[in-house]
Design brief:
mainly alpha
Length: 98
């Protein structure tokens, strides 16, 4: 019986891991879809996402919108996605990166 319980737990863990991996790949696409759905132009999207009007989207601003859109992701997943959008690696998403 104990072996069966362990086997069931392992399957659940494997499913959770697989789901998280799928989410990572789809997460970027989901974010882009949200942006396309909510704004008519990239310029307007960038301006709205840059709440503090600094000329670049900070991690705080980006995280706010992900939470606003109901995307509950771990810190590791957030860092992964943020770095995908921060092409030049300067710690913010500039308009050029966007």
């Amino acid at each position: 019986m104990n072996l069966e319980k362990q086997d069931r737990r392992a399957k659940v863990t494997d499913k959770e891991i697989a789901a998280k991996e799928l989410l990572k790949g789809d997460l970027e696409a989901k974010i882009l879809e949200k942006i396309k759905f909510q704004w008519k132009t990239l310029r307007k999207a960038f301006m709205d996402l840059n709440v503090e009007k600094t000329g670049a989207i900070s991690k705080k601003e980006f995280k706010f919108y992900l939470e606003f859109w109901g995307m509950d992701i771990s810190s590791e997943e957030f860092d992964h996605v943020f770095h995908k959008f921060d092409l030049d690696g300067d710690g913010v998403i500039s308009y050029k990166d966007f």
